[in-house]
Fold this protein.
Amino acid sequence: MSRTSDHGKGRVAGIQKDVHDPRDHEFDAGDFEEAKDLRHYLFDVENQKASEGCAGFAMSTILEMWLKRDSPARAVELSPLFAWWNARFLEGEAERNEPVTARAALKTLRRHGICPESAWRFDESKWFVRPSRTAFRTAKHYRISAYRRCRSVEAIKSAISQELPVFLGMEMREGFANISGSLETHPRQFVGYRRNPKTGGHFMAIVGYRREGAIVVNSWGTDFHDQGCVLIPWDVLVEDQYDVWVVTGLEVRKPRRPARKSSNSRKSLPARRLPKVKPAERPVRSRKRKPAGSRSALNRRP
């Protein structure tokens, strides 16, 4: 859901509920810590503006955190627009500012990957434009290989304890955008929140948790909440969530370097005209006449 969507008018925007599939693999809840915070892996919190591309922003945030965790030297900002466009294309909505399902976003990230932000920037003029060939080529270097559903709070805590950010889809209610101040004050501001009318769905990323609730990073910029992050109490999250996934595998391939040309190759030399070389002149040999009466002279015909 975009931050400019209508509130309290029955509009469900920013997210489509995923159809249940019994073939989905579930993330097994294991041991977990009392509290965990992964915000140190975040890049800057981004702003989706008036787009319905929250799924692309949440997934790009999660995969950026993977890169920062596993390959800090090679960590790059990824393109939310690339992920959002491909998911819309899969669902036949590439030319409209429409939300997508979690499954569509995950499928395209496994099939096509996601390119760096530098290859396909989030520009309003490109919202309905097919990404470039360069974007598709570089996206193959960052493809997810596995993802699973989270069915419980324990599964969410277990994933975060393993430093796996969680993809969260949930209903928004009136007053959510007004949650502000430090994280410590957020649970008090959620008192009575569940009685508010629903205004639409939204995708975000869970990047930590405490005893009071889950630390969630939004995509409305740093002017909202606590520098773009909000602490959602567990009872609110359990009641309003309906799509929770965790990426369990990311394939990162090193870009190929172009082959260097040999310095001895003629193509690598600057073009120049070679000087013409005159053919070697043969020395002219003078023939000596044989004296009259010799055999060769006698055999000649008159």
Summary: The chain has one domain: 36-252.
